[in-house]
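Inputs:
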Amino acid sequence: MADYEIFVTYKEGIFDPPGVTAERALANLGYQGVDEVKIGKYIRLSGDVDTSQVTEMCEKLLANPVIEDFRIESA
Amino acid sequence: MADYEIFVTYKEGIFDPPGVTAERALANLGYQGVDEVKIGKYIRLSGDVDTSQVTEMCEKLLANPVIEDFRIESA
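Outputs:
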């Protein structure tokens, strides 16, 4: 059994609608100091699988490699 | 300027539909070793704000404290 943490983020230059929405909402709540918000996915995966399999899972299902980057860490 | 990483996860016992969907899809793709998948949010926030303000932002907007936990790290 192994535990992994996977961080999925939009690639540089790809529009991030939830992030922009959060920026505006935070400004409306009075947090003027916020410069940028980016919202991605934080996936925790456990099982009898190795890192190369988890990489494959990210490429095939957990991330969209066209517009997203992912980073895998053993937890 | 400070950079923060925020990890938003469902509280223990709260149903995680995207996680369960990913588990099933991975099983259908042939990854029989996967035990559990949990899908949360990975937020990167930068600005002229301190940790107590970021905690407030999580409580008010970025997370739903009723069903989600959050963890903040300086990046």
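Remarks. Chain B is about 30% helix and 40% strand. The helical segments of chain B are 17-28, 51-62.
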